[in-house]
Design a protein that fits this description.
There is one protein chain. The protein is mainly beta and 318 residues long. It folds into 2 domains: 134 residues, Immunoglobulins (Immunoglobulin-like), CATH 2.60.40; 101 residues, Immunoglobulin-like. The protein is built from no helices and 28 strands. Strands 8-16-15-11-12 form a 5-stranded mixed β-sheet, with no helix packed on it.
Length: 318
Amino acid sequence: MNLDNKHLFTLTHNLIVPLLPVDLYAINKSFVNCTYNKIRNVKPFIFPFALTGASAWGRQHCRGKGYCVTLSEQKLTAEAGLCVVIPCSFTNADEFTPKHIVWYKCEASQKCSDAEIIFHSNTHNKKVQSAFQGRVSRLEPDVSQKNCSIIINDLKESDSGSYQLRVTGERNGKQDGFTFNQRVTVSVKGLNQKPTVMIPTLTEGQQATLTCTAPGLCSGSVPEITWTWRGAGGTESYITGNSTDFKTENLTAFTQRHISTLTFKSSAEQHNTTVTCKIRFTCKTTTEEASSLKVNCEFFYSLNVFVFKSTDVYSKKL
């Protein structure tokens, strides 16, 4: 499937998310039933999310004339090791020219300070928290498009909390900015998704290739994928003579699919044993999937053909 970064995915599973399929804004391994909608030329930018349960998605919140933000008021749920998208768009008064987008993470009951900045579109700003540096990106780099959506990669459970937006710029030639009171709450849980393991028909003596695909389509960092084999004795080891390969498929500017393959010659000793694909994301977040191997036997046999000629009998092996 060829995609460009000017499209968003519309998944029938739980919701819709810009540029990538997600389950409550966390990337979901499901990659089916997608349709495409143009997003870059929408002004103001509003994501048509479809959340399960009651939702106030799409409701505009304004402070003063012309200064409005469109956010989801529901809690966003994501999984550690993957990513979360916070969809956002804003409008401003004609006399204000937006220059930069700033996102904070702080207690919902408190006013956010510069010490709690997790993203600043001004790359020269040195106030971004070290724990978030390199993990947060804008989906639209052009601030004039009024798209303030961000994606946070390599999620940790400590990323759970309240997120607030501020837009800075110039009003009538002077530096100014406005902070929206509305916030988005993100809840990061432990990783529950499993890798997907594909096993072809295994025949004794023939070469076979197993495929393991990491869960999620945006982790940020490339995960480590390893294969282990548990023989009849229950001891975990590696299949003798195996070879592995790894590749990353770039689907869009923000989504990738990480795949590992295991190639080996099937043997009878592998029948009814278990192979396990283990995924290790950053911050020691891991998940695995175990699969049983069924190896078909290849039968060899000879056929004796008897040819009768006169009184002699000839035996010929085929």
